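Worked problem 6 (solution included).
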Amino acid sequence: MRSYRIEPAAGPLSGTLRAPGDKSIGHRAVLLAAIADGPVTVTGLGAGADNRATARAMRQMGVEFDRRGDELVVQGVGLHGLRAPAAAIDCGNSGTTMRLLCGLLSAQPFAATLTGDASLRRRPMARVVEPLRRMGADITGDTAPVRIRPAAGPLRGIDYALPVASAQVKSALLLAGLYADGATRIAEPGPSRDHTERMLRFLGAPVRAEPGRVTVLDPAGWDRRLAARSLAVPGDPSSAAFAIAAAVVAGGAPVRVRGVCLNPTRTGFIDALRAMGADVRVDGAGERGGETVGDVVVDGRAAGLRGIEVGRDLLVRCVDEVPVLAAVAAVADGETWFRDAAELRVKESDRIATTAAMLRAFGVEVDERDDALGVRGRAGAPLAAADVDAAGDHRIAMAAVVAALAADGPCRVRDVANVATSYPEFADHMRALGVTLTEA
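Solution. The predicted structure is:
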């Protein structure tokens, strides 16, 4: 079992990093390029296992890929060019891969089965399966394996109100809507990531977005072709969050993370840090391929951080960053509460439980509830040196490394192999900033 050993920060961190390619956008770039009308060049794709799972799935359905240095050329086969896979599609640990493929495959004239590792097979799929059935899809499986057979007829557009804001469910319905008869209208109870609709519009699909609603306009007036346009994947804010949080906890002198996606549905982490009093700024922001991209800079110390309330609207914009925000909250003054957070119970681990266990290992007082987590900060006092079990969850492992920088002695984080799922460069990047981290 792989582990990290971390020494407390001896002083402020410093350095410049380039964030790895955004995982969420990478999934969509590979999938949409695969069904575009011709070859698409994708740049900036991350090296994580989740994006590789999406590429592997498309290969199983006849899509060819050519690696040319830092570029990936995807030989798009069009909306109707996919072929039946010879075996079940293994989505690994990637819930995004599985849920997006549910939408895409529901409209195909062949059968397919989606499966994954033990963690993914426990994650809920009913939230995407049920509305796809309303569209006429022949799909079964409240958890993986999910089995999809050719529908009895064309899918039909529906009006659907998401019970909870979910970019993955929304994206699956948008993909199915590209093939459907009639418009597909999706109402959201709050903001969620909008990368799919941005990229679909960029490729020429008839998608309209307005506050609280996304619509695939009636595709009858569309030629059902996605343009073969080059796609650039910006840096992943969920990965950049760990370097940014480490600089907030240990001090930045300064720390700069370049090329970060600043889509407003993804900047909740930065907004939360600023609300806590952290010195975090954005430099050089500009539009690239439909997304706002810029550098994030930390230049200062953790002194003066204060606890805050992270409620539903903010939490949905930083749901993947809750574990590392909780690590920052551990060194703040006062209590920080993450509320309306039931979604965290069904991530790669039960992240309310695993985040609470991680913080307790450092001697932090936490209040764990069904849909909330409270963290009582230890401002002015070091955290206790800890031996942390990351429970195989990459974000718990990386958040524990951040917390260890504020400990009163060396710390160990166990079961960290899944860090490669999202951020294989993590340990090297931490060391480049001045963190003393060894692997075993």
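Discussion: The chain has a mean pLDDT of 95.
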